Structures are given as structure tokens and as C-alpha cells.
């Protein structure tokens, strides 16, 4: 199942050929694994939502792999991620302690690290807030509800 014999591919490992690459999202879910099989037999491209899921996983692990536990974000890794990947949101906040407050809110098990599940809750919360702003904008311009 894995392209590298005897070893599980890491997020940083380079594929040997285009057919060797297996994204993390496609490894963890049977539906996405099925997508991988389709890609090898057809020219089917992943949907926008599948690409978004893969992007969440890859961005999280790009920052999580910088220090310590590669499956969690430290406070510094979370700050770097937010400064680079959520810079517009961070700039709109008036409080310089925003990242620390977010860290306290996300770290539900109080281990000083943010797991992928805890990180996704941040993305979901921000997505809901953005969608609500979008709905207000539509109402303002006379769009649909």
C-alpha cells in the first residue's frame, strides 16, 4: 500500500516518481484511498474540498515538524503558522496576546501542544465566522439569504 517498501512515508519524504506520491489525506481514509486508485487509472483530479483537506493536513505538518513532537504544534509553531498562513486574521486583531489566547482555547487537554484535531477546530471556527460575514455582505448588496 505504501510506495516505500518497509517504511511508512513521512510528510517530508520525496516521491521517487509521480506515481509514488501518496498524500497524507489519501492514506488515512478509505474514500480518499479510492481517489488515489482513480488517479492512477484515470485523469480524475481531486475536488476543491479534497484539495482543501489535503492542504490543512500538509500545512499543519509543515509547521508541526519544526521542533519537538511532529504531530503537534508548540506555542512557537502555532505563532509561526498563524503569522504566515492566517496573517490577515492576525493583523485584524487588536490584542497582541491573540496567539496566546488562541493557544489556551485550542489546547483542550492542557498539554501545552495543539493537536491536529485542536487545530482543525480553529479553522472551523474561523470558517464559520467568515461565512457569517459573507452572508451579511450578501444581505447588504441585496443578495439571497
TrEMBL record:
GO terms for molecular function: calcium ion binding; calcium-dependent protein binding. PROSITE patterns: EF_HAND_1 (PS00018), EF_HAND_2 (PS50222), S100_CABP (PS00303). It comes from the Eukaryota. The keyword Metal-binding applies. One of its GO terms (cellular component) is cytoplasm. Residues 1-21 are annotated as: Disordered. Gene3D superfamilies: EF-hand. Pfam families: EF-hand_1, S_100. Residues 94-129 form the EF-hand domain. Residues 10-21 have a biased composition (Polar residues). Keywords: Calcium, Metal-binding, Repeat. InterPro entries: EF-hand-dom_pair, EF_Hand_1_Ca_BS, EF_hand_dom, S100/CaBP7/8-like_CS, S100_Ca-bd_sub. This is Protein S100. It comes from Pangasianodon hypophthalmus.
Amino acid at each position: 500500500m505504501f510506495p516505500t517498501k518497509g517504511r511508512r512515508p513521512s510528510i517530508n519524504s520525496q516521491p521517487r516518481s509521480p506515481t509514488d506520491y501518496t498524500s497524507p489525506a489519501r492514506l488515512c481514509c478509505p474514500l480518499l484511498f479510492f481517489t488515489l486508485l482513480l488517479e492512477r487509472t484515470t485523469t480524475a483530479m481531486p475536488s476543491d474540498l479534497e484539495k482543501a483537506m489535503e492542504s490543512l493536513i500538509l500545512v499543519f505538518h509543515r509547521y508541526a515538524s519544526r521542533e519537538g513532537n511532529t504531530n503537534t504544534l508548540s506555542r512557537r509553531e502555532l505563532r509561526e503558522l498563524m503569522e504566515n498562513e492566517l496573517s490577515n486574521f492576525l493583523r485584524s486583531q487588536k490584542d497582541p496576546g491573540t496567539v496566546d489566547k488562541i493557544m489556551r482555547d485550542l489546547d483542550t487537554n492542557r498539554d501545552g501542544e495543539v493537536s491536529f484535531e485542536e487545530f482543525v477546530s480553529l479553522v472551523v471556527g474561523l470558517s464559520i465566522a467568515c461565512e457569517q460575514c459573507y452572508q451579511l455582505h450578501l444581505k447588504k448588496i441585496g443578495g439571497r439569504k
